[in-house]
Amino acid sequence: MKKRNFWKIPTIITAVIALILVIAIPVTSYYATMINAALGAETQRTVPGENSRFFFWTDFETEEELVAHDWDTCCRLEEEGAASVSSPA
């Protein structure tokens, strides 16, 4: 009877998962703003009140201005990406 290598299949599965993660993590990190905006994910929370603490300073007066700026950034990134792909090198 031929002896079978038990670790062959788990090794292949682990290698495939590692390859997927090596590609997916940088891509999702680069496009995190666009992904969060498209999914409507809450990336920050506004805590109203006099004794509120500032976790970071911002140039935006309202949350709507911040969201509008994020969408504008996403649109410009997509336009620049489309322009660079469609233009011949």
SSE topology:
Layout: H1 8-30, H2 32-39, H3 63-86
Structure, described:
The chain is an all-alpha fold and 89 residues long. Helices cover 62% and strands 0% of the residues. 0% of the residues are buried. It contains 3 helices and no strands. It is elongated and about 75 Å long. The protein has a domain at 7-41. The mean pLDDT is 83.
In short:
The protein is mostly helical and 89 residues long. The protein has three helices and no strands.
Question: What proportion of the residues is helical, as a percent range?
Answer: 55-70%
Task: Give the count of helical stretches.
Answer: 3
Radius of gyration in whole Å, from Cα?
22 Å
Low-confidence stretches: none
Distance N terminus to C terminus?
60 Å
Share of β-strand residues: under 5%
What structural class is derived from the secondary structure elements?
mainly alpha
Overall pLDDT score: 83
**Any idea what the shape is?**
elongated
What pattern of helices and strands is seen along the backbone? HHH
Sheet with the most strands? none
What does the oligomeric state look like here? single chain
Total E-strand runs: 0
